[in-house]
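Incident log, structure service

09:12 report received: a user says their structure output differs between two submissions of the same chain.
09:20 pulled the input from the user's history:
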Amino acid sequence: MIIIKHSLKGRIRLKYKNLIGSPSLASAVEEALRSLKGVSGARCSHIGGSIVINYDCTVVLPSELIKAVTEVKPAPRRAAKEPACKRQGCVCVRNEEPKADTTATEFGILSAVLGGVFIRTKILRLAVGQSLFSPLGLIAAAFSVPIIARAVKDFGKTGKVSLNSFLGAGVASAAIAGEALTALEILWVNTGSDLLNGYVTEKSRKAIKNILDVTSKTAFVYRDGQELEVPVEQIHVGDTVVIHTGEKISVDGLITCGEAAVNEASINGRSELVHRFEGEQVFAGTYVQNGLIYVQASHVGDATYLSRILCLVEDSLGNKAPIELEADRLARRLVNTGFWMTLGTFLITRNFYRAFSVLLVMTCPCATVLAASSAVSAAISNAASRGILIKGGRYLEEAGSQESFCFDKTGTITTDEPKVISIIPVKGKTEYDVIYSAYTAELHNRHPVAVAIRDKAREMCSTESTHAVCETILGMGVRAEAMGREIFIGNAKLMNRYGINISKLTKARDEAEKLGLSVIYVAEDGRAIGILTVENRQKDNVEAVIKGLREEGVKEFILVTGDEKYSAQAMADRLGFNKCHYSVLPEQKADIVAEIQQYHKVTMIGDGINDVLALAKADLGIAMGAAGSDVAVEAADIALVDDDLEKILYLRKLSRKTKEVIHQNFMLATGSNVAGAFLGAAGLLPPVMAGLLHIAHTAGVLANSSRLLKYEMQPLNVAETEAVELTEDGEKCSKI
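09:34 re-ran on a clean worker, output below:
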């Protein structure tokens, strides 16, 4: 069964459960989609079961895409008692193929053999036989069999000479020529490269797990009037989980009883404790610092917020960047070049050993293949340790080349803790009437403004309220029904939609907007009863981040917000934005992104459901770490665990540094190969030294890539940073 997760013009995301645990099917589906006319890109995940397709909607229809997916038949799977991915509590535990263990075993055996040869020849001063039928020759032949088998399989599929073909030919030639030690060196380097690359990848996964550590082996569930301690994997949606002081919350859900000071650093990155009350939502991975709460589970296991992010980012390690694919192509070109250089050397010199040395130098392009993949894995690991979750190498690469940045306003460049400044009622109503109605409508809303309204209501009086119906209208506000009344709270568009007259509040609105305050209307049963003025405080480091991005080559900054003109324009002018679009609806944000894409690559930065369409449409979507905005995180290409804008500047610098390291690796890998080939052709590089050359440049590439694990950015000096002035040709705010 295929489910459309979300769709917009030219892009669709599907959920296909058959993909989960089947890399071969994912690859086949991806190949089938890319072969369709009108499809410009397709990416399939065998981990999450998701398919993202970019296509020309004038050429191919979504129904045709879905049909193409279903027509790809899955390969028969071997019987297995366990699925490819299972959950233990809230952590993804993969039943990996035993490839890593096999590689480690092979590397250990080869290391022991070469170590024994070193002791025998250098310490004991004894000779070793290197003919094909000597012990060393037989060992080399045995370890070369799997490589040759893969080479034959590759040739049967494509009809072309692959990396495995050239590698197998080099090892076999060395063994046959009586250079078994050289053959073993090549095998040792190749196996060690695979092992080290796997180590870097696994280290990246561990770094991700460390920052999203939601492990909790047991939890207390309230059943039949008593608390029972059960394994977290036995908790079901609807269960009531009891969390005491010092315990970690293991589910997403609503507090049904009690209150507590909750540490939500894993969600929002802030060290301050958050006081959570009955009716508010809590998330797995946070923990109760002080208090006692009863939580009704709404999401458990792999459905929790942080667990979904964990699997999305683990999936990223298989999503190659274009520069990684270029490394693969370069390695294949080196193989072809190596073949002709070997043949040319033999024809010119008529010397088998010179041609053999050239073959050995060019036979193992491990360093070239690792040049990009090792650097990207190290960079993703670094970013993950800092709370930047990148869903693939391609997005890491693109982060350094975007020319236009679109920012949402509320919760992105302003704090996610707005404050209600004043309450202005109409004649005949009191401030209490207005705030109580607003509180009733926003009781279960997770929007930052709703939180500010509830905080203001609790500050003014003791509030207790419930509502039967609550409807959120994207880009406008909320409609609720309570105690026989219909309550509306939102912007002017919401009032106009329901025909509510707000002319009596025009003067108060204008005065508030001139001060840069946002205005929220409150109405009951079709009549306006007052307004709330809200201050959206600007984040401390916004100006420094924008200045840094300008210095990094970003050409254009655009503010895209649903806020009214005055508050949006004041902030855009103060921060030096080139353009500002205000009073926009969610679908209009996506249209604005599409318009900019006609002349620039666009990064969209947002934090809420109303930003989802724009995040999906942009060349690069970055979701801020607002807890609960899981739809935005799903649609975005990069997610920040917290809401620190400085991470966006760090991401851009890391992207550029990664590409710099990759190009250095290419130069080191290909340069040493070419130099070694010429030395071999000149008779200055014996076969044994050709094998050692592989060890040297592969180690050099991995060492160079490992520098990215420790890469840091100089901290921004927020205090001394001044707002950037708007350029003379900068455009003023334009209403959509």
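09:41 both user submissions now match this output. Likely a transient worker issue. Closing.
09:42 reviewer note: The first strand starts at residue 2 and ends at 8. The chain has 23 helices and 27 strands.
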